[in-house]
Amino acid sequence: MNTDDAILELGKLVESPAADEPDGDLDLALGALLIASTDSSNVDIDGVLGNLDRMAAAASGRIPSDGNELQQLNAVTDLLFGVIGLTGNRDDYYDPRNSYLDQVLERRLGIPITLSLLCMEVGRRAGVPILGIGMPGHFLIRHRDEPNFFVDSFNGGLLLSQDECGALMREAAGDAVRLEANHLNPVTPREILARILRNLKAIYWDREEFDRCITAIGALMAVLPDRPEEQRDRGVVHLKAGNHDQSAEDFAAYIEAAPNAEDVDTVRNALSRLRGGEPS
User: Fold this and answer.
1) If DSSP codes are grouped into helix, strand and coil, which group holds residue 150?
2) Is the C-alpha dihedral spanning 15, 20, 21, 26 positive or negative?
3) Do 157 and 75 form a contact (C-beta atoms < 8 A)?
4) pLDDT tens digit sequence for 40-88
5) Residues 141 and 112: beta-carbon distance below 8 Å
6) Structural domain for 95, as ranges
7) Are 249 and 112 part of one and the same domain?
8) Which pTM was predicted?
9) Which helix (H) or strand (E) holds 245?
């Protein structure tokens, strides 16, 4: 699958109402593999999905017939982290491969959000409802029906209380940050896919891999079609890469979509310079 087709399919996937429900029955694994396909045409989507089905069957066999919520959750996390050996990539946290699901499975290395997504998707296939928790700085999961305990997928499926989540958040985001109740709210599939893409956007910007950054933003625009600021940002990256025509197109589209934005005059002036005119 080429990049344009992957982005098109990603946009179609999030048209489902399930994309905007925290416990929506959306195939997040497929979404993550489409993201991976924006970077590589060799992603074996069907093969990876089949592998997840086999993992789910193995996890199901580990759940006691009268297992409670934590036992159900543990069956999934013990399989993925204890048996299969998935782990957090501490040595190279910002390696973009940590954000591509096929690479996470192949290398058995990931970051909190991709490792959590694997738990969610194996759980969904095994009948264990697992929600994504978009805590700033460190993504977590929990069982849908057990709101008091959380799982840190980056640290081997470590079970956390709310107080321990607060300590983890301060470690990840700084001592000045304090945990608020909304930080532990479940997030939607759309928000999860967008967070993966924002990670890639930031990584490729920092590496000055502008073509890949542009691709990540294009995919982000498909996931978040109502966020014109992403088109503005793509225009900035195009400008940095020397793609002046494409930059002008993105800036013009942003001005039309967000005429009352606080930065619209700045963008309008940048567009005028690109078109050879005087700033207005």
Assistant:
1) strand
2) positive
3) no
4) 999 999 999 999 999 999 999 999 988 899 999 999 999 999 999 999 9
5) no
6) 3-184
7) no
8) 0.94
9) helix 244-257
